[in-house]
Amino acid sequence: MKKNSWSEIEEGLRSQKAPPPQNDAESFQLDFKARASLMRQDSASPAAAFAWFPVLSWRIGIATAAAVLIAGLVLWPASSTLVTQVKSLQVLAPHSGVIIMTDEDNPGTVVWVTDLESDDGSKG
Amino acid sequence: MSNNLKTILLLALISTANWAFAGSMLSVRLVEANNAGQGMGTGLGDVAHLLQNNLPYKTFQLLASRSMSLPANSAASLSSGIVARCSGGQENLNVVLERGGRKIMQTTVELRDGTPLIIGGISSGQGKLIVVLLAK
User: Fold this and answer.
1) B7: helix, coil or strand?
2) Rounded-to-integer distance, Cα A71 and Cα B9, Å
3) For a tag site, which of B23, B40, B100, B128 has the least CB within 10 Å?
4) Helix (H, G, I), strand (E, B) or coil at A10
5) What is the pLDDT of residue B52?
6) Domain count of chain B?
């Protein structure tokens, strides 16, 4: 194995000398360009950054309208819960029975007392 | 579902429920029903289908009509000795029916706007007397 002299070693090191270090700004620019070349760079639009705001508002508006519509459809007269409700009933005159009917086609409630004795003593 | 959407939905439900009790007037009508003829008397157009489709009578005649403000706290003297004493708001309306000064019926109802309450079965000759309550 050949032994290099010290002068040869110095010469070799000089030939392989690393390029002089760049300052921070140059290094940053080079690194930035290298990274930028690796990915797609669409042209920036000033409005693009805030474009999601109207989209979001539009979607919230539609969702709100849908929620109100659904609430209306579920709760408005089609539902029997919105027909007049009888909470309590007490018949004080003689009678044989009580029927409570709810009509959803013609919204309303019917309370019918059968065989309700009239004041002249007859039954209906 | 976001909290905002839940809030909006809740408000919609509450406001919908409140709309059902926004009436300012209570109408009280006395109707006589029988099978002596056939037809619907004047002043009953808004409850005609409800009466005809649910009661076994062909003729309906309006005997008396009164109105009072809501919340109610008054008595409506109708006809044939019938008096309807009403008190409270639509969500808790108390109705007492009297005939000849004697209580015959008492009820508490949740009366919704535009949906009539029909209370019937009081004997009257060949037919029946019916009280129709409606909040507007």
Assistant:
1) helix
2) 7
3) B100
4) helix
5) 92
6) 1
CB contact under 8 A, B123 and A77: no
Residue B1 belongs to some domain of the structure: no
Among B53, B49, B90, which Cα is nearest to B72's?
B90
Strands B59-69 and B39-40: parallel
Query: How does residue A79 score in pLDDT terms, banded at 50, 70 and 90?
Result: very low
Instruction: State which residues form the domain around B42.
Output: 23-135
| Nearest chain A CA: its distance from B70 CA (Å) | 16
Minimal-distance CA residue of chain B relative to A92 = B104
For B31-68, give one letter per residue: b (16+ CB within 10 A) or e.
Answer: bbbeeeeeebeeebebbeebbbebbebeebbbbbbbeb
The whole-angstrom distance between A75's CA and the closest CA on chain B is 7
Segment 20-59 of chain B within 8 Å of chain A by CB: 20, 47, 49-50, 53-55
Domain ranges of chain A: 48-78, 83-114
pLDDT given at position A32 = 77
User: Does residue B13 lie in a domain region?
Assistant: no
B18 in a structural domain: no
